Amino acid sequence: MDDDILIIDDDEQVHDSAIQSWKVLIVDDESEVHRITKVTLSQFRFDGKSITFLHAYSASEARDILKQETDIALVLLDVVMETDDAGLQVVRYIREQLGNQSVRIVLRTGQPGQAPEDDVVESYDINDYKDKTELTSQKLRTLIRASLRSYRDICSLQRNKRGLEKVIQASKGIFEKTALDTFVEGALEQLTALLELEDTTIYNIKHAYELKNTELEMLHSTASDKTETDDLQQHPILQLAIKDKTNIYQESEVVIYCKNPRHNLIFHIEGTQQLSEVDTHLLNLFTENIVVALENIRLNEVIEDNQKEIMYRLGEVVESRSKESGSHVKRVANYTALLARLNGMDNEQVETLKQASPLHDIGKVGIPDAVLNKPAKLDAGEWTIMQTHAKLGYDMLYDSDIPLLQTGAAIAMYHHEKWDGTGYPNGLRGEDIPIEGRLTALADVFDALGSRRCYKEPWGIDSIMELINSESGKHFDPKLVQILNENLDLFLEIKQKYVD
Amino acid sequence: MDDDILIIDDDEQVHDSAIQSWKVLIVDDESEVHRITKVTLSQFRFDGKSITFLHAYSASEARDILKQETDIALVLLDVVMETDDAGLQVVRYIREQLGNQSVRIVLRTGQPGQAPEDDVVESYDINDYKDKTELTSQKLRTLIRASLRSYRDICSLQRNKRGLEKVIQASKGIFEKTALDTFVEGALEQLTALLELEDTTIYNIKHAYELKNTELEMLHSTASDKTETDDLQQHPILQLAIKDKTNIYQESEVVIYCKNPRHNLIFHIEGTQQLSEVDTHLLNLFTENIVVALENIRLNEVIEDNQKEIMYRLGEVVESRSKESGSHVKRVANYTALLARLNGMDNEQVETLKQASPLHDIGKVGIPDAVLNKPAKLDAGEWTIMQTHAKLGYDMLYDSDIPLLQTGAAIAMYHHEKWDGTGYPNGLRGEDIPIEGRLTALADVFDALGSRRCYKEPWGIDSIMELINSESGKHFDPKLVQILNENLDLFLEIKQKYVD
Ligand SMILES: [Fe+2]
Ligand SMILES: [Fe+2]
């Protein structure tokens, strides 16, 4: 027997060698048939691969093997075994029970009378019908070759179909994302699914980068070691993708390149198998969809940016009457958002607060110049008028249906309440003051103390913190004051970034 | 010869009958082989369909037929004809030149010596190899049946694959849309492509409806007759889809149902063929994508709505200082948009103008109370101050990157210029005044005259038009005044809709 042929009846080994050979199952109750078939095909190769034989000596054994081994290419199937139609029952089992449409089935019968050819071929989903007597070694080789060719073509079509279904699934997955970060994570996930890496996640590493100018910024990574990822950015395959603005498919890694006027994303997946032409076609299809989805995200971002800017302008227009500095609303917005985030609020809440915060003094539009811009201390009557700006702002916004303006209304109303109940307009106390008000109160005062006003010079940070700490539990929510103390450097970064 | 069998050598007829039969091409230089094959298979049926034979008596004839007829299921192919390997050349032609991988090819040779079986089966992509002598009528029937079965399975996989590719293409097409109207048109187009109706567009009618409360509103239709479409809305299949909230696939029509919290879309396509299970699976897949795309559109609309409302609020906050009525900015926005549309501007320009128009008096924030709200006529100095609101507004907005605020800046700057050059701040004349200014000027005055102000009662429409017409070519762009005159009813509808 030739060394090329693997005659393996041991399950373990079969599994290992399966990748490099065609599985052919011989089902026959005569062991001589098994032997002759193997000998005849000892030199046989198709598409550069040899045959691995599996052996069943009864219909029941055949069923067990077929259930286990889902990648059998061909079954050479005797008809009469335990019963006169045992083989025919196996055909039904394969096509109907197992739903296996791809395996090729050839009936080989020694007693044609038991299974009239026309009836059998018509009623059973088989691919050929042979008298054992007519199967010369020449005819057997032709039969095997034609069957394996057919199996290969059907498998390739099926793989392709499954791949396309995955692309559809994957695309749906990414089109459901509307923010860049979840989109990037989703795209990596779907790429992994497309590359069928689910089972080997231990061995592969996925990264997503955004190219900013010439720098690669890591957006997401499954690598455990951070220093390791720093080196990877210099990886030649990434540089190649960037240079050629295209996907790169190499032996064990894949780079997907997607660009639009705002984003330049690069996905890098290592530890893949060698990709077929079909695989790369599917990845190209999916890449086109990533690009469309990324464009949708860009459009969303543009609209969001517009909204943010409009809100700032709205705040600034109002502030312009009190001759306050242009960057006051931006700083207060950023302080408020930072406090909210450190206080454990979720991204959406933080973003809404940040965008709504410029509206805190919108009610000042209704305060007369004489009060608003009086260079001296306000008298009691003027002070009463001034205080109405909180409720006035609320009245301008509360009837809106949109959450952003409702939050704006709350901020306007409550940003002058104090923790100890001595604030206005309602004299609320402690946690009765909505969080929007407590956050903005601290952010607003922190900024006002540090800024130049017509009546005062900007304070130094030590004096500011001394006052704020002394007002903890009086003017301000003590928990928020603590957050400010513990993260002062982050707040000072904002102050630095938005100088007047 | 049996009546069931169609022996047709005429091209026209072949085409008509093709749908109901399997095409088998016999290629042989002996006419006796043709005759015997036909006689043997005279009663043959597979999957309820008979065989239509095509006949070629040389390799060259075979090539011509194969090029014409792309849906041949099986070729029974002689080897030795014009040349010793004429048949083998036909195999290459089919697989390589025509790229036809689905047709089954069986070599039938009378001179096996000319084409050694192992070599031929290995080197040529054929599906079986027979000596003419071994082909008994029984064996021929088995061969044909197995071949047709294989052809049917491969075609079904290929159709499925093409269908999935179309779903991917179609989905990309709809995800590229960001507005409801283009989305609806695109979805209908892609549905048509999926249903392969391109060739029969004359016979089918497509409609898209939006369900509002219980009323179907037609969004798009390819029907030529408008009254015809009115009846269709009562069509039971539409009512069924609405009731069951699901797609309906019937013999010759398809209803696709898609719903999200804002939109309830129904696509109705008539004149389809009976759909297979595969087709309905693909349509279901595509429907899922339509739903995702529709959700993206809804999110866009929400953001757009927010932006519109924020812009109105911004305008209203400013107006609140001059104690003007709340609906003034909405009316001016709508008048401006209507004038722009009637003046031939595109949708995007109209929308931008509409949203930016509330900012026309934003500069008034910088005008002191004493001037802005003076109950008497302004003196010369006060008037000069008042006029600065145009430039002040421009200064607040011009440095923004976003088109909406840039348009706002232009509107603020130019809405008090006059056609004859007597306006402010720059005394521009005629078409030197940017269109944003000319449009808003007319809309603003048209509204102001019709509204109650602290110093005047609202005018009647006749007096308003008398004044505006007398100012045509003086204060106002005469072309815009003409548009206003010709479409006065549309403007009065807006006045009615946004009463104070
Ligand atoms: Fe305030
Ligand atoms: Fe004005």
From TrEMBL, chains A, B:
Record key words, sorted: Phosphoprotein
Modified-residue entries (4-aspartylphosphate), positions: D78
Source species, domain of life: Bacteria
Listed InterPro entries: CheY-like_superfamily, Cyclic_di-GMP/3'3'-cGAMP_PDE, DUF3369, HD/PDEase_dom, HD_GYP_dom, Sig_transdc_resp-reg_receiver
A Pfam family recorded for this sequence: HD_5
Ranges where the HD-GYP domain occurs: 303-500
Keyword Repeat: no
Start and end residues of each Response regulatory domain: 23-147
Stated name of the protein: DUF3369 domain-containing protein
Record organism: Motilimonas cestriensis
